[in-house]
Amino acid sequence: MTDTASPAPVPRLTSLAHGGGCGCKIAPGVLANLLQGFGAGPRPPELLVGTETSDDAAVYQLNDGQAIVATTDFFMPIVDDPFDFGRIAATNALSDIYAMGARPLFALALVGMPINVLPHTVIREILRGGEAVCADAGIPIAGGHSIDSVEPIYGLAVTGVVDPRQIKRNSGARAGDALVLGKPLGVGIYSAAFKKGLLDETGYRELIATTTRLNRPGIELASVHGVHALTDVTGFGLLGHLLEVCRGGGLAARIDAHAIPLLPQALALAEAGVVTGASSRNWQACGGDVELSPALAPAYRSLLTDPQTSGGLLVACAQDAVATVLDVFARGGFADAAVIGTMISGAPRVHA
Predict the structure, then answer these.
(1) Burial (0-12, 13-18, 19+ Cβ within 10 Å), 74
(2) Catalytic residue among 22, 246, 286, 317, which?
(3) Which of 257, 288, 298, 323 registers the highest number of CB atoms within 10 A of its CB?
(4) Pairing mode of beta strands 350-351, 290-291
(5) pLDDT band of 38, cuts 50, 70, 90
């Protein structure tokens, strides 16, 4: 008798993960406690950027004209489509290279998969998505490492190169600098809506479009006179990463929440209570250093702390460089880039 039993259904990728995208990050306060006392070992003079300011990547100088930039990033699925998951994870990992003003050279794949749960065809699609993004960035995936894990995990370790004189740290902002954000906020909110079945097809396309757009303008921004600091907004939300800029420069920041670009459905979803748990964790970590206007709608707290997966570049630049910075973004396909605030004198704090 022929066995006609149907094959087991393929589980949704997001159903296999307790978190997704950069929302998987360890909460900022917990991370700070875990790392307390680390980083005090030998520091060669060639290590230009290490752990001192929570910057986006490590930078090691080779000679007067070249420095190596190295970073790694990986997470669990934010969407169910395996190809899209691979693309998002790779785009996110490459962002840290661009956020230093560097050009990527090659990547190594980091792969953890429940090998007996997911069909090999699904896993291959995740890898193919990552490879497609790296091809778009003009670099190869030159190797990597894989393990059999309980949850699906994918990401990259990326190596890049930069002129040491053009490194853009997150600590170089100056009082009076304008703050420019390259991508709209709302990725975490869209992800939460997707998991709850509340994100329509248009919203899904918006989510994929923003999370798979490479932050390539960072390379050109590195050579713009007047660009003083650069970082990208990811798992700690806009407030968390802006506070890193404030602390690194010994400054405060004032932002106009209504000037911040948002994904089209993000505000309505936030007002409906569709937010991530990571947003609350981010607020617990940074809220003591943030002053929100009483007139600001409550939903904006969720937007300002929303964990961004493959989020936008955040630029601190001289006022006379704003037009050039916005032009670099526009030519790179970042039509939503906008001035959202100013760096000001004062203890590290954000006023919104």
Answers:
(1) middle
(2) 22
(3) 257
(4) parallel
(5) low
